[in-house]
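Many introductory courses stop at the sequence. We go one step further.
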Amino acid sequence: MANAKLSELRKKIRPFEDADDKASSKQMVNTLPPFFALWVLAYLSLSISVWITIPIAIIAAGFLVRVFIIFHDCCHGSFFKNRKLNNFVGTVTGILTMFPYSKWKREHAIHHATSSNLNKRGTGDVWIMTVDEYLNSSALQRLQYRLYRNPIVMFGLGPIYMLFITNRMNRKDAKKGERRNTYLTNVSILVVSLLLIWLIGFYAFFVIQFTIMFVAGMAGIWLFYVQHQFEDSYFEDESEWDYVKAAIDGSSYYKLPRVLQWLTGNIGYHHVHHLSPKVPNYHLETVHEQTPPLQQATTITLRSSLKSIKFRLYDERKKTFVSFKEIKQIMRQNQTVNY
């Protein structure tokens, strides 16, 4: 994109980068109370049947995804005008979603700064190997990667590993403030959990809370996965990498039904978010609709997004994702040539 067009694009987006405290407060009101109400309703329904409780907990998980979007915007400093208020709300919503605010804020900032850059993978992203890397790796590394990319592992075990292991630990070189925030989050989660177990019993707490966290975690991983891994997604080496192309061509527009769009806080407009993380979630749709160049981003739907499950490796030569089935064919061809 030419500098003049890029400058014009940023000029159109800039008015939407200011947080609207009234809109943010309204979002908190239509998100947090319903979430807590559904939690209580799920508990009350246990006296009737657990098969009524689980569907209610699944709906509550949808609201927890929306809570995470508030947390996410606070990490970008885009939810409220006041920095301290962003930090406070971000920490509280981080406790609810089991995400340490300072730790994730840092990792997510790195993700935005390096998204689609093949030379800077590994922090705040999904593990992606290129075809050449896979072909040159050991049998053990290939097995590890295949297990990681298996849908059962990624979306089944992934939420458990993320919520109960990686989110609970600090990196070795974490600064004091980041470490303290993680400790605060962990202790708060433990205290609230023990209090609820004391009040309603372990069985009720486990059935409700585990269902909510697991479903919300699975949905979160899916959204993060599918919005950067689609057939013609943009990936480049450092020398060729471009921030704007990474945002518009490396992030999709996930066109969801209105209810799901609301529950996911417009995160489907991921290309807009990556171009300008300062735009609050409640402005993303407006920016997309009023900025024609952004409408050129790849559009995926619920149905078409399912294809991304078969995308396993990135082919740098063809600029597309390939499946493990396709890589087997390449390996056979190489063996034939070598023979």
